[in-house]
Amino acid sequence: MHELSIALRIVEMVDAEVKAAGGGRVEEVRLRIGQLAGVHEAALRFAFEQAREGTVASQATLSITDLPVAVFCPNCERVVELPTITPLACPACGQPTGDIRQGQELDLESIELMEVD
Amino acid sequence: MGGAETASGPAALPRILEVRTKILKKNDELAREMRVGFAASGLRAVNIVSSPGAGKTTLLTETLRRLREAGLAVAAIVGDLETDNDARRLAASGAPVRQIMTHGLCHLEADMVQAELAAWEAEGLATASLDMLFIENVGNLVCPTSWDLGESLRVVLMSVTEGEDKPRKYPGLFNTADLVVITKIDLAEACRFDRAAAVEAIEQVRPGVPVLETSAVTGHGLDAWLAALR
Lengths: 117, 230
Prior knowledge:
The complex is a heterodimer of chains A (117) and B (230).
Chain A: H1 3-20, E1 25-34, H2 41-51, E2 61-67, E3 70-73, E4 78-81, E5 100-102, E6 106-114
Parallel strand pairs in A: 1-2
Antiparallel strand pairs in A: 1-6, 3-4, 3-5
Chain B: E1 5-6, E2 9-10, E3 15-22, H1 25-40, E4 44-49, H2 56-69, E5 74-80, H3 85-91, E6 97-101, H4 110-122, E7 132-136, E8 153-159, H5 166-169, H6 171-174, E9 179-183, H7 195-205, E10 211-213, H8 222-229
Parallel strand pairs in B: 4-7, 4-8, 5-6, 5-7, 8-9, 9-10
Antiparallel strand pairs in B: 1-2
Helix pairs in contact in B: 2-3
């Protein structure tokens, strides 16, 4: 359950960003998570619900963009998206490649904020 | 709420704050700082990761013993949810050892390692004079994946008793390995371990990564392992 550590970091970052922006109520927190990041979405959503309590994000929903793994194939000389996480090989020509171009993200993308009087 | 009009005019529209930042940025930055510090003092930090029971502590105890015999200043930090059993086992090597009890946390983070190094300093151990620092992570093939501990070498162990397809079940972690070590190789035959299948599975998730085989009990492969650490 490292998702709780991640959820706590998210809430910490959201709090800092919102304070820097002059406050407000967080409507939505948007993440980008790669399939190789080792994060279980349901576990993260559950952890976030606990972590957001009593913070500016206490009513925020979590929006997660799931990013498939994409690798650069030296044979085909292009970036190709993989249909499954493994094997890390070009789906077109079969060439194994560890040159990962997408799929390891664990990013806080943006925050949707509503002004409060 | 939402788009409702109020007496004072239209309700405020939501603002979008673009953040585009790694969630583990703080950990990444600290780890980078630590790695620079380690490099400056000539210390090599090794992060050892595996499932529980793959043989991290057994291999590490023998590793520490042999490196000390070779005249190197080595130390180890070991993380577990509970007990200091592993620290006591590792201490049999004669090397300085510190136990982190995470009390439920499933992985180590950079600031935890930094705190142990500071505690060592406070006790009079000059960590800058160490040649190698081993960090035995919490036994777990998922959670340690994204936490950089400032290491210059991440070693993922898998034992012959675990099944050849472990890398394909846990691709995220195996994908971060700088070196994969197949442990308990002395049990390979008894377990009907299929070496080619294991190497193929590793290759599928981390193409090109070096793979070693060891037995901390018989000493098989330990010379190559020690050489890979230097």
